[in-house]
Amino acid sequence: MVEIFGVPLPALMGQLMLGLVNGSFYAMLSLGLAVIFGMLNIINFAHGALYMAGAFLAWFGLQYWNIGYWQSLLLVPLVVGAFGIVIERTMLQWLYKLDHLYGLLLTFGLALIIEGLFRDQFGVSGQPYAIPDELSGALNLGFMFLPKYRAWVIVASLTVCAATWFAIEKTRLGSYLRAATENPKLTQAFGINVPVMVMLTYGFGVALAALAGVLAAPALQVNPLMGSNLIISVFAVVVIGGMGSILGSILTGLGLGVIEGLTKVFYPEASATVVFIVMALVLMVRPAGLFGKEK
Amino acid sequence: MKYATPAYAVAFLLLLAAPFFVYPVLLMKVLCFALFACAFNLLLGYTGLLSFGHAAFFGAAAYVAGHALKVWELPALAGILLGAGASALLGWAFGSLAIRRQGIYFAMITLALAQMMYFFFLQAPFTGGEDGLQGVSRGSLFGLVDLEKDINLYYFVLAIAVFGFWLIHRTIHSPFGQILKAIRENEPRAISLGYDVARYKLLAFVLSAGLAGLAGATKMLVFQFAALTDAHWHMSGEVVLMTILGGMGTVFGPVVGSAVIVTLETELADKVGSLVTVIMGAIFVICVLLFRRGIVGELLALRKRT
């Protein structure tokens, strides 16, 4: 059997794939955080909780309402996105003129509420979500077995990320968005309804988190704590990459996932902390982050 | 503030008499968290830095002090000082990384570093993992005062807390504290006035971390165990909540906030179970939306108006 540094190739590739799966979630969540921060100047602490809510809604759908995986993939982001719009209209919109930290504190409170409610209902144990029939099983690539579902998660989230990048960088709506991020007052003077764009941006960012949640449901277990554990790693990813560039967020997310996967193979003890260690190293060498703009 | 000195005297007398009327362990818990929140307020309220990772210092000191007392069998005071010192050292390491970025990034960096410490405590051999360090004996003070008795321990904890408050009070009202406020109000201006802002921020961070550690180590002594919850991000959030609920940037705000939160948690723990988190979250949301100055801040504003 082929070995690399004493690790059998299939095991190495397996962890690498798992790392890419995690990296896809990092990428989708940090992308949503970056888009929201650009427009609202708010770091959305509730992002992890809404990702968890997305996974749970998919589980509910399958369990009680006979809504399958594919329908969930479309419906759950819509529902959570609508919920996000309600949050934006009723709470966040009053904070835009205040210090950034109030947005963080408010969304932290929301995260506690959402997580607490789910914990109260479901405890801390995980709920299994079956992989849909079309995606169960594995492909034999010769040097490794590739579970179909993992491949699907990576392809799907990369597609979503690429589409988001395209929509923001290459379309007219995206140019409005970038203009409003750069200078909201001037953009509004050109007759573009900035408050509505802000509202929709939050809804979209949150929907992205929920979509990641649905994708995660069959890959990981559906668990009330899955969001808060993830969001702190995503914060580290955001610090490493900086929120200036969309492509930067995606690449950093994937890269960190891979690094985490490799750490699991070569030094498992550090696999939970490696993201934070990388963050500390980046802060020492390049304080503005890898893709960040120096102020 | 001509009423300040009599007010402090009355508060101190009340605290001296309190254990005869209220359960001392609850009072000690309030004192520890009040010190924790005041230490945190030094950073958020007076320097304008939002640290979302103060649980790391609280928890680290608890573990170090617990280990010192249980394994090395050091006396109580030495263990507590060792814990606080370890937290100050950790604060120096975290602070020098975190002050490289500003605003919202500062909060995210401190949160991430604290999470790293959480995983470290989960895995490290000396912390007892999920079980924590249990059954730490309180020992005695200089071999004279038996701290196993709650009432004796109460006055010991009170002395530590008063020392902590005094130190924070001195810091706030010193020239150093004035410079911290200048940084909070307008950092570029402080830089242009020739202050080495990074050094002042770091010093404030170390001081805050050390005092948070003092609180954590003392709490360990009261409850005789150190556990992962001390270092969890919920704890970081809790101290933020205590500070903004009481009123950040006010001397007494964090004390009031921690008294309210600790009492609320103790009262609610049996009745609503895990819904406590939901209630804490709701208080957060209400504080941010409706009264950002906090309880003490609003009272001060009310008095100014009349």
Distance between the termini of chain B: 16 Å
Count of helical regions of chain A: 11
**Helical proportion of chain B, percent range:** over 70%
Structural class of chain A: mainly alpha
Side-by-side strand order of the widest sheet of chain A: 1-2
The value of Rg of chain A in angstroms is: 19 Å
Q: What would you note in describing this structure?
A:
- The complex is a heterodimer of chains A (295) and B (306).
- Chain A is mostly helical and 295 residues long.
- Chain A has one domain: Orthogonal Bundle (ABC transporter involved in vitamin B12 uptake, BtuC).
- In chain A, strand 1 and strand 2 form a beta hairpin.
- The longest helix of chain A is centred in the N-terminal third of the chain and has 32 residues.
- The mean pLDDT of chain A is 84.
- In chain B, a hairpin with a 3-residue loop joins strand 1 and strand 2.
- The two termini of chain B are 16 Å apart.
- The interface between A and B is large, with 43 and 41 residues.
List its salient traits.
heterodimer; A: 295 residues; mainly alpha; two-stranded antiparallel sheet; two-stranded antiparallel ribbon; 4 strands; B: 306 residues; 13 helices
